[in-house]
Design goal:
A hairpin with a 2-residue loop joins strand 3 and strand 4. By secondary structure, this protein is α+β, with helices and mostly antiparallel strands.
Length: about 130
């Protein structure tokens, strides 16, 4: 099972041949954000779904009470890099509004049912992020 930096490294080395289909075949992409404090690139392998031509990810951090660092980075620097298999592109990241979230959350929880458990664990509303190709 691939996690963290090792997941990203193998994904990039193989254009997603290794790492795209993660645990139980769940699809992942590589998100590159700009660090809000360091200005350095930060990479994360994240579960996604393509919906209406955009890519959707969830800032769950396993139901932690704080947002993941990558989410805070993209809020500050919404221009991100995305890799889906061999397709690498720049995208604009934005938090789904409440209407969009109501539509997208069940889609994402259908792919990774633990998202519902994570939301129950925390008082924060877990953000759903839409990545739109620039």
């Amino acid at each position: 099972m691939l996690f963290g930096d090792e997941h990203v490294r193998r994904y990039e080395e193989t254009d997603g041949e290794v790492g795209h289909d993660w645990q139980d075949g769940v699809p992942t992409l590589v998100l590159t954000t700009t660090g809000r404090k360091t200005g350095l690139e930060r990479k994360f392998a994240l579960i996604y779904q393509e919906v209406d031509g955009a890519y959707v990810i969830v800032a769950s951090k396993g139901g932690d009470d704080k947002h993941p660092g990558w989410y805070l980075n993209l809020v500050e620097h919404p221009e991100v890099k995305v890799q889906v298999k061999a397709d690498k592109f720049t995208a604009n990241a934005r938090t789904a509004n409440s209407e969009e979230r109501a539509k997208l959350w069940p889609i994402m929880a259908g792919v990774w049912p633990d998202y519902d458990n994570y939301q129950r664990k925390t008082d924060r509303e877990i953000p759903v992020v839409v990545l739109e190709r620039a």
